[in-house]
Amino acid sequence: MIRGTGLLLALVFAASANAATPSPCKLASTAEVKAAFGGSVSAGKVEDAAGVPACHFAVKHSNLGVSGEAVVFVTPGQSAATFKIAKKYIPGAVTVSGIGNGAFYDAHTGSIELLKGSTVASAQGIFLDADAHPITSAKIKSDVVVFAKAVAKHL
User: Fold this and answer.
1) What is the 3-state secondary structure (H, E, C) of the chain?
2) I want to staple 100 with a disulfide (CB 3.0 to 4.6 A). Which of 37, 105, 116, 133 is the partner?
3) For 147, what's the count of Cα atoms within 13 Å in the CB-facing half-sphere?
């Protein structure tokens, strides 16, 4: 009987943990992605390739001159404390103001890690040039900032 009770408690805990984490595709709309990157934007699609549900929006003919995608997800197992550690130790992390309770940009990944309340999320722009190298200009940073501000509103 104790075994069954433990399983039941584990299922209740898992359900409540999932209930607290919003679906990644509820963190941004196609209109918000279009406002950030321009072009035409497809509806977000949840992918779980790395064990973390992430919402992928395909962006064709972005204002960066190439097609790519915008990706958003809640970072599992992260907290305000781990956010501060990551901000300190990720090489080249640049503080970005005006997003949630804190945010930083990582040019290597084209992403902004943001903190709002006790939730940590990631907003990323994945756009590659003709040689399959990530676009790392100031323009992609400004686009990802717009995207991250939209995400923070939904957390």
Assistant:
1) CHHHHHHHHHHHHHHHHHHHCCCHHHCCCHHHHHHHHCCEECCCEEECCCCCCEEEEEEECCCCCCCEEEEEEECCCCCHHHHHHHHHHCCCCEECCCCCCEEEEECCCCEEEEEECCEEEEEEEEEECCCCCECCCHHHHHHHHHHHHHHHHHC
2) 116
3) 33
Q: CA-CA distance, 67 to 127, in Å (whole number)?
A: 6
Specify the pTM: 0.84
Q: What is the pLDDT of residues 88-115, one digit of tens each?
A: 999 999 999 999 999 999 998 999 999 9
- Taking the chain, what is the end-to-end CA distance rounded to the nearest angstrom? 39
